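Reviewer 2 asked us to include a model.

Predict the structure of this chain.
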Amino acid sequence: MPGKTLALINSTGRQAASVARVAAAVGYQVRAHVNSTDGSIAQELQSLQNVTLVQGSLTDDKLVARLFSGVSKAFINTIPWGDEIWIGKSLASAAKKAGVQHYIYSSMPDHGIYGKAWPSLPMWSVKFTIENYIRQPDTRLPWLDAEHDVGPAVLQIFKDGIKKWIALAFELLTPREVCTAFSKALNRPVRYKQGPINIEVSIPHGYREQLQALELLFGKYNAPYFGPDLQAPQEALQLWEGYRGIEEYAREVFPLEEAANGLTWMN
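Predicted model (structure tokens):
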């Protein structure tokens, strides 16, 4: 039934088994992954109407693809069998590729990120890492066209007098929203592809370390860009409403910068 097919992993665990029982009872077609059909919980699930067991390793790409094929919803609770982070990331990527519309991941916090000398619990911190991998396409990061907008903002600050600290960013955009803006501005498809930062060109000294730290800070820990006490973009918009947004930048400036670097795709 369209919209009522649900995939579960590690279905003999308490969380997924609970979801399987309730979902099957209300009419969902449940595709429940298990590592083994032995044991009382696996046998119980196998006896339920609307439940189909899928047995095998989550490192098997073909099995995972079959698990998510035609599925509209998924509930995922990874456990420390094998490389949990790799499995968690690969499951999220496979679900996205299969077109799963609603993906729920059962995560836990990483207390080590709070700066209070609290320890990171090993079995929880890996889940937080997976959570942030899943969240990346929807994590909002600030946009500022420094060449166009810093000057007017600074002059307005001089005019207004002494102020508190200001988060100088005029838009907060997810990677998907950035791609949409570029696609609209350039009149060509621009797609977000999640993955590691691969540096394939010559860059100035120190940039490699900076990019790797950015990947860790925002990709793994989902840290706030400006910190908790600064509000973007509200504060910046009060200073200067004539900012250049990322869509205008992509349309008016980006092709010129690409041409200056010897690229010709825009011709």
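The longest helix spans residues 84-98. The longest strand covers residues 29-34. We have added this to the supplementary material.
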